[in-house]
Design goal:
Elements (H helix, E strand, L loop, with lengths): L2 H7 L5 H18 L12 H14 L4 H16 L7 H5 L16 H10 L2 H12 L15 E4 L2 E6 L7 E5 L1 H16 L28 H15 L18 H13 L4 H8 L7 H4 L4 H9 L2 H4 L3 H33 L1
Antiparallel strand pairs: 1-2, 2-3
Length: about 350
């Protein structure tokens, strides 16, 4: 392996970042017309990057896209001991502009996808929509990362990495997970704690040792479901961005519903897997129970099936009525004792 490329690729941790940065580097190589990584060290680096930024701006790419592409170049050159004047280069990026105003999926749109998805993909979609999981986190999930908390699951995400956090999923998602695991067990798979939560497809009559599903499989399957459901029309000629990001639109749905449910901002950030800002992490110590209670406020908002949403409302009302009845009974006893 070319040493310059070796320094670049092996200093990145996440597979998703590696994939994205490799593509960014190849795009730059095409622009400067070199086909060897070592030659990238021999060009006029700063001038070339500035020219590349101006080229990207002419293409009317969003500021965030330009920023990602340039970050990949900064990383490549830093790992190959080339010092750049970033202050000078960054002046050419221009002001932040949002090229596409995207949105999250709606309840109705997700419902359409779930209606035609198989059990495995239902779990994937509900994990992203009700637990806010990023696409890249799903292949690494194992059965041991889930813990049943009454009718929901607590899920540990990115276990063992700096980004590790935990969140929860709705009863609707938990039910789909249980059905999927039971289906695999009925077909002869030994579903241990070390088994992948979402696995590759297998022959119902001869399940082999389970390998994890890949991000590409999830992405490609959702793309097919979008077309099949009528939510997307394939157009090979158009390069327009879609109104709803294909997989990230589910996570956007998650965040939107947490806001609609009026969750406390700092606790919402934790459920999304974000670090607390400023000094908040020094002062806020949130227990698992407290975070679960906050998440439960949003369950009805995050539930996709209307029937399940209504059932959740009925269950909540029933619980409130029981508490009210219990309080009334206690008050009557106290009044009786006083009398």
């Amino acid at each position: 392996m070319d040493r310059t490329y070796y320094n670049f690729i092996n200093s990145l941790n996440a597979d998703e970042t590696k994939e994205k940065y490799q593509l960014c580097l190849r795009n730059f190589m095409e622009f400067v017309r070199v086909n060897d990584y070592a030659l990238l060290l021999k060009i006029k680096v700063e001038d070339s990057i500035i020219d590349y930024i101006l080229h990207l701006r002419k293409l009317k790419l969003s500021s965030s896209t330009i920023r990602t592409r340039i970050s990949a170049l900064y990383h490549f050159y830093a790992m190959n001991d080339i010092i750049l004047n970033k202050t000078k280069i960054n002046k050419y990026k221009g002001e932040f502009t949002k090229v596409v105003k995207d949105r999250s999926y709606s309840h109705e749109e997700i419902h359409k996808l779930l209606d035609i998805a198989d059990l495995r993909m239902k779990v994937c979609i509900l994990l992203m929509a009700s637990a806010g999981l990023r696409l890249g986190s799903i292949p690494d999930l194992k059965i041991k990362h889930l813990k049943k908390m009454q009718n929901i699951y607590r899920i540990i995400v990115y276990e063992g990495f700096n980004e590790e956090y935990f969140t929860f999923c709705t009863p609707e998602c938990a039910k789909a997970i249980d059905e999927y695991i039971n289906y695999r067990a009925r077909n002869g798979e030994k579903v241990t704690s070390e088994a992948h939560l979402i696995r590759e497809h297998f022959d119902d009559y001869a399940p082999k040792q389970a390998r994890a599903i890949t991000k590409d499989t999830i992405r490609e399957t959702i793309d097919k479901l979008l077309i099949k459901s009528g939510l997307k029309t394939r157009d090979h000629l158009s390069k327009k961005h879609k109104a709803v990001p294909m997989t990230h639109g589910f996570r956007k749905f998650f965040t939107t519903q947490l806001i609609e449910a009026d969750l406390k901002t700092e606790l919402r950030w934790l459920l999304e897997g974000h670090n607390l800002k400023g000094n908040d992490s020094s002062y806020i110590r949130t227990t698992e129970k407290r975070l679960q209670q906050e998440y439960e406020k949003a369950i009805n908002y995050l539930t996709i099936n209307e029937e399940n949403r209504l059932k959740e409302k009925v269950d909540n009302l029933t619980s409130e009525l029981k508490i009210t009845a219990s309080l009334i009974e206690r008050i009557e006893k106290l009044e009786k004792n006083r009398g």
